[in-house]
Amino acid sequence: MSTRARAGQVHLNAFLKPPGEYLAAWRHPEAVAGAGVDVRHIASMVQRAEAALFDAIFLADLVGVPLVSQDVLSRVSVVNDSFEPTTLLAALSTLTTHIGLIATASTTYNEPYHLAGAFASLDHLSHGRAGWNLVTSLNDGEAQNFGLDAHVEHSARYERAEEFFDVVCGLWDSFDDDAFLRDQASGAYFDPDRVHRLDHVGRHLRVAGPLNAARPPQGRPVIVQAGSSEAGRQLASRAADVIFTHHPDLGSAQEFYRDMKDRAERFGRDPGHLKILPALSTIVGATRYEAEDKADRLRGLLHPAVALSHLSYWLGGYDLSGHPLDGPLPELPLTNQSQSAQRRIYDMARREELTIRQLAQRITDDAGTIVGTPVDIADHIEAWFTGYAADGFNVIFPYLPGTLDDFATGVVPELQRRGLFRTAYESRTLRGNLGLPRPQSRWATVPAPLTR
Amino acid sequence: MSGGHVPHLAVALDGAGWHPAAWREPDARPEGLFGARYWADLVLEAESGLLDFVTIDDRLALQSSLPYAPDNRVDQVRGRLDAVLVAARVAPLTSHIGLVPVATVTHTEPFHISKALATLDYVSSGRAGWQARVSRGSLEAAHFGRRAIPGTSHGTSHGTSPDATPGASPGASPDNGQYPGSVQDLALLDEAADFIEVVRRLWDSWEDHAEIRDVATGRFVDRAKLHYIDFEGRWFKVKGPSITPRPPQGQPVVTALAHATAAYRLAARGTDLVYVTPLDAEHARRITGEVRQLEAELRTMSDPIRILADLVVFLDDDGPSAKARKAHLDALDGTEYTSDAAVFVGTPSQLAERLLAWSDAGLDGFRLRPGALPHDLVAITRGLVPLLQSAGAFRRGYGSTTLRAHLGLGRPANRYASV
What we know:
The complex is a heterodimer.
Chain A: E1 11-15, H1 39-51, E2 56-59, H2 70-73, H3 85-94, E3 100-106, H4 112-125, E4 130-135, H5 140-143, H6 154-172, E5 180-183, E6 188-190, E7 200-201, E8 206-207, E9 222-225, H7 230-239, E10 242-245, H8 250-266, E11 275-284, H9 288-299, H10 304-314, H11 339-352, H12 356-365, E12 370-372, H13 374-386, E13 392-396, H14 402-417, H15 430-434
Parallel strand pairs in A: 1-2, 1-13, 2-3, 3-4, 4-9, 9-10, 10-11, 11-12, 11-13
Antiparallel strand pairs in A: 5-6, 7-8
Helix pairs in contact in A: 3-4, 4-6, 6-7, 7-8, 10-12, 13-14
Chain B: E1 8-13, H1 36-48, E2 53-56, H2 83-90, E3 98-104, H3 110-123, E4 129-133, H4 138-141, H5 183-204, E5 211-214, E6 219-221, E7 231-232, E8 237-238, E9 253-257, H6 261-270, E10 273-276, H7 281-298, E11 306-315, H8 319-333, E12 342-346, H9 348-359, E13 365-370, H10 375-390, H11 403-406
Parallel strand pairs in B: 1-2, 1-13, 2-3, 3-4, 4-9, 9-10, 10-11, 11-12, 11-13
Antiparallel strand pairs in B: 5-6, 7-8
Helix pairs in contact in B: 1-10, 2-3, 3-5, 5-6, 6-7, 9-10
């Protein structure tokens, strides 16, 4: 253990997307019918993740059904049924004690006052376990639920997100930690000198403040960001505590890791307080043969039309039906959705000279899924961690609950054996478990005690 | 006590109670207001009294004793938790009682609210409701800016009460007894009506059995059972469908507080239940008459609207103690507490008589606003409720598990389902 090139331990987030990330996961024999809206089932998975000592679970969110073909939509569950995540997490916080609870909320179609109040409330109600995955919204199907005909343009979206983040953080600092006196005898409920208006007037937002909530137990709920375009990297390195990212190989992950830590440093931050968690999708078996067999059975469940549409979605909604399936990917206009995803897929197609059919298959089937034994997966984790490509992983589950259980019972003990993962929670707050300090208020005059 | 029946009884929870000095009571737990335990204890207490539901108040600004501006008071409760999240947090700890958070319509998006309430309905297995609240004036508007808000000529104070609109809940704010009628108020109510309509359509945008999960054919969803709602009105343009399937109750229970005709109209058309604020039995008769009349003219929903009268209550074992306690709280606050709703000060037995007398006036029940928590809540669950039960006037057990069923409301047909 002492020979390891890097001290410390990995952080693991469980990205729960019942019935699983793989588009045909709902067809898996183990899948629970109605998994997306089965509260009991979701709660049991969160409890399993907590028993396995994951730092956090993460629930994604969309605010609209993507406008793709009806035929394809009828064949997938992933984009079709889900809860409002902060409401669900409030309920799940009742059923858990340590695990962090992270939800996506869009800066494009929310108001910062409402969102700051909701995440502050979630942090209070969970005693310091809330996290906010700050996203900009992706598709026209969402825009049309908020009075707009088309999706907000990429740069305006990020500009608003930057401003939105600042406003939300400012609102969380409205009350100093010691602002509430609640002195029944004197009648002083709070100290007005320890309450702060924000009076923000910016390009996109106008918010007076103060927020109507006490400062969250964590000071700030944990901020997660996943953009990896230039604008996304700037925002993430300035704002995020945790970055979810996606890399096909060690080299590109290392480059991203270095770049983000450098950027964080340029913002005057301690780079150690920016945790980079690449996606890790696994199918685990006791033997490689068993793992491959599980993967093959899963892939066999996918309808080809779904694969093609999935590819088209990630390319920015570009309709590929006019191009021959066995021909090359055409030149594409720059998407207004996820530009980094488009670039990654495009580069892969060019590099490996893939046809559209092969590419669709690749995007859907592999998605970077590692198929192997617990030792194989732990080797990968250790290589990326010691190689400074990752501070931990955003673990993705191709189908649930199978791949979560396999990870918890196989990979986690192997990581613990290597000293790479905790054997008990260090803290009851998400910041505490991630090794992040509690940020002091922008109004604090005395440096906060160093709490790690 | 004889005759009369109280079919429905609810409690409105807000902070340390509705009296602004309630947090200074010896049994108050002001330090708990930002904790889950405090709210769980209150809701469990209400459930032990077999109440139909609790409402949990909310608004998008700090509380203020002034109608349209922040005040300088430091001796009243300030700050609160998001009511929808509080309701979701206590849902797994309770099993029967309805959970009805306030959510403001004026500065929020119907798509978000519809999903949040649908989610609450799932996590509570069919016990979700919603008190739709309108926000008037600049106090809250100052925190928002994206959507154009009807009538935000800031400081629309034509002597109208900020609380005299659906869902606006009095408490810390003074009530001057005047109710809305200005153009701005009507526009806010119109916007609220559209908001409720969008939320309801989104709840119906999935038919009940849209998820077919046919493994053999590879069809997860029957897309013919998902519907665009294509709402286009003066305030909103929403395409749909929702991302959340139809909630367990089909339509969670929509409620609103109303004090005047324009708001009764909105309630009669779009809500399942309205809170009204009669001052006496005769007044209650007039109000219920007006609401029923509007209902006959405007309502298209199959179930009749439920009408609950709001009362603020201060309860003790003897009348003088209750009066003394209220007077003490008033002295602490420096003003006599009044409200848009009638304020009752007395014993649980006197309150039982009052409720039974009023229930003849066409009311379906009552929503009591405890003056101080937990004191007046406990007096309701352990004092008032047993008295009503022994008079044969209130349920002795929950006969159902969903809020709609408690209220005698059917599970509504889906407006988009082909027969």
